[in-house]
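User: Look at the shape:
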Amino acid sequence: MLYAIYCLDKPGSLEVRVGNRPAHLAYLESQGARLVTAGPLLSDDGQTPLGSLLVFEAGSRDEAEAFAAGDPYALAGLFQSVSIRPWRRVFPKG
């Protein structure tokens, strides 16, 4: 099953995001094809990151939660909130 993981950063935490970005990217790369897509949520200026959106394939919600909890951003305390929901791909068809 696919899970959408929607994370919002704590206010004023840009330095935490920037400082942990290399470890975060390495963690995402280590997931292989299980990570369907990922990227930052941006403010209205189209530049400033405010959070993260990831779609992850997992065998259970517990597995998706473990993936989210193991993210170096989460371990560094970057996120104000994390929401995990089952998600179904409609487009592109595949």
